[in-house]
Amino acid sequence: MLRVVLDHIVLTSALLNPHGSPARLLDFALQGRLRLFATPGMLAIESKALRSGLLRKCHRMTDRELSELIADLPVLLCLVPDPGKAERTRTMMGEVLSCAARSNADFLVISDELQARNFEAGGAEIVKADQFVKLIGRGVS
Question: Domain total for the chain?
Answer without folding.
Answer: 1
